Amino acid sequence: MYPENVMPDFMLLAASLGLLLLAARYFVDGISTIAESLGVPKIVIGMTVVAFGTSTPELVVNSISAYQGSTDLAFGNIVGSCLVNVGFVLGLTALIRPMKVEASLITREIPMLIVAVAAIVVLGSDRFLNAEAQDTWRRGDGLILLLLFCIFLYYTTRQARGAGNSDAFIAEVREEVARAAPKSLWIQIGVTLAGFIGVSLGANWTVQYAVAIARGIGVSETVIGLTVISLGTTLPELATCILAARRGDADIALGNIVGSNLFNLLCIGGIVSTVRPVAIPAGGHIDLMVMAFLSVVLLPIAIRSGRTITRGEGAFLMAIFIAYLGWRVAGVSYAK
After folding, report:
1. Is 99 helix (H, G, I), strand (E, B) or coil?
2. Residues near 194 by Cβ (< 8 Å), separated by ≥ 6?
3. 172-198 as b/e, with b when 16 or more CB fall inside 10 Å?
4. Residues facing residue 278 across a β-bridge
5. For 252-270, how does the pLDDT look when each residue is reduced to its tens digit (9 = 90+)?
6. Of 121, 149, 151, 167, whose CA–CA distance to 294 is shortest?
7. Mean pLDDT of the chain, nearest integer
8. Comparing C-alpha atoms, which of 325, 77, 111, 100 is closest to residue 222?
9. Per the count of CB atoms within 10 A, which of 25, 69, 81, 275 is most buried?
10. pLDDT tens for residues 115-159?
């Protein structure tokens, strides 16, 4: 049972997340139309919407968290979103429909994700070089992550320009471009401004009520970020992947999940660390190791069984996620 004085904060947090998710979609759509009017290639816009558009809530929430000094919350949400994406969203999608894995994911996106995970773990392990140092993602580390993100974006854009429809990810990009109906620029500017205001308010309130809940029930902000905030901000990925699986495009769902995790680790992690250094909180290294395991194990899972993620493998990923999350929430891995 939660303290009665915390229940209103849970309700307000849910409302804030709802506003954040709704406004983020309008904001991304508006930005896409404005970018097109400025001459940005449609293939680049489509790739941004498909791979990264659903991560806008995490970007804004974590940037505000870092600016306000709640770096434990930002850490929890960055790592937690990746855990939720692979353990819960991918696991549930595979349970709904086994996922055929396209060759491009095995040769391009998943290896890039493993590089991103390795970078985020190594950059947060300062004590290996200096036993007296505190493990922290510093501003220099943030710039390294952003550089890796730019390299990934450049490489993927080049691949997109020359790829045919046999590439599942690029095919979805082109479908997204085709669905985008032309709209008045001034209308889209208004939609973008409204979305920006909604995202800003929703994210600010989300951080405010998440911190209040953490203090009210006596848990760390990291755990709130790993659980409530991560589950809330990954709802767009969950909805996108379930719809893709139900219409028989489960391979698109996997590309969406991997792209979202790359964005979370490299772009959001880089921006947050640049805004304010993020100390690895108590229990944080275990969170990173579990995230790394789930990310690395994707490669052999994707290769075996005829390049298909089966229902059994989906259940395996979900079981690890649920077991770890239950253990983490129970307070086994951190000291209050």
Report:
1. strand
2. 23, 26
3. bbbebbeeeeeeeeeebeebbeebbeb
4. 137
5. 677 778 888 998 999 999 9
6. 121
7. 79
8. 77
9. 81
10. 999 999 999 988 877 776 788 999 999 999 999 998 888 877 776
